[in-house]
Design a protein that fits this description.
- By secondary structure, the protein is mainly alpha-helical.
- 73% of the residues lie in helices and 3% in strands.
- The protein has a 3-stranded mixed sheet with strand order 2-1-3.
Length: 317
């Protein structure tokens, strides 16, 4: 792809979160710690679910997929950022930038889609408990995950191909710690009208649509819970979806915060700082949210790590 001066694009510059050299060691240590916690925490969830037959249910099948996606999501941005800080380089190749952008869009959308599938799973479990195992059969669960992958891949491919059609001039500085789609489109010197249309349309359709589905599911869930006569029954029903509701609130709350912070200030560095919340912090917290609020996960982790006691009560199906 040729920029305005007729030379071949070979690299972009990622300006990161801060230009202050004295903050780089602190940023490196902080993000390395968060990345290791994210990978280890989500990997433990995947291994615990796969190794415990009691967790071979639709809810935990989707949870293990979410954990796997979170590992990949974080791995698309943080390792390159850490490498740039360690080598004191801000460079990312043109091919590397497009590749990073493709996988970032892919796994961000997958996160969104799987959270929506998990909301549907909770809707069926609470609103149609007698037909839960019939509706959420293994074939449908696999189909929902496969459909999430297909839609995410196609969306990511479309947006990445549109960026490949852009021309870039001399200013190739991206005020972010990774190649974020809107930032890359913003620095192009060719017409980006079609790119913006596709970018916002896909975000509205594939981002807003699933979010609306989640809101609808939880409106029905809350209506069903309110209809339960006993307080204990209400608490038990709500506790089955409390962890997922916490993760949804965290994911969409931080994503909306990024959008609002950029819209209000038009400051790219503020947007980059806010992006840390849903690209790093949210995937890191997900395993803690599910493990701390879920006794089945706790017991599975104890078994997997070899710390199960003989007095542990039997887990009911």
């Amino acid at each position: 792809m040729e920029p305005g001066n007729g030379t071949q694009i070979s690299e972009f510059l990622l300006l990161g979160l801060s230009q202050a050299l004295e903050l780089q060691p602190l940023i490196f240590g902080l993000f390395l710690s968060m990345y290791l916690v994210t990978v280890l925490g989500n990997l433990l969830i995947v291994l615990a679910v796969s190794s415990d037959s009691h967790l071979h249910t639709p809810m935990y099948f989707f949870l293990s997929n979410l954990s796997l996606v979170d590992i990949c999501f974080t791995s698309t941005t943080i390792p390159k950022m850490l490498w740039n800080i360690q080598t004191q380089s801000k460079v990312i190749t043109y091919q590397g930038c497009i590749t990073q952008m493709y996988f970032y869009i892919l796994f961000a959308m997958l996160d969104n889609m799987i959270l929506t599938v998990m909301a549907y799973d909770r809707f069926v479990a609470i609103c149609h408990p007698l037909h839960y195992m019939v509706i959420m059969n293994p074939r449908l669960c696999g189909l929902l995950v496969l459909l999430s992958w297909i839609m995410s891949v196609l969306n990511s491919l479309l947006n990445s191909l549109m960026v490949l059609g852009l021309r870039f001039c001399s200013d190739l500085k991206i005020p972010h710690f990774f190649c974020e789609l809107s930032q890359v489109v913003h620095i192009a010197c060719s017409d980006t009208f079609l790119n913006n249309i596709i970018m916002y349309f896909s975000a509205g359709l594939l981002g807003g649509g699933p979010f609306a589905g989640i809101l609808y599911s939880y409106s029905k869930i809350l209506s069903s819970i309110c209809g339960i006569p006993s307080a204990q029954g209400k608490y038990k029903a709500f506790s089955t979806c409390a962890s997922h509701l916490s993760v949804v609130s965290l994911f969409y709350g931080t994503s909306l915060g990024v959008y609002l912070s950029f819209t209000a200030t038009q400051n790219a560095y503020s947007s980059a700082t806010a992006s840390v919340m849903y690209t790093v912090v949210t995937p890191m917290l997900n395993p803690f949210i599910y493990s701390l609020r879920n006794n089945d996960i706790k017991r599975a982790l104890q078994r997997f790590l070899g710390r199960q006691t003989f007095q542990e009560p039997t887990v009911l199906g």
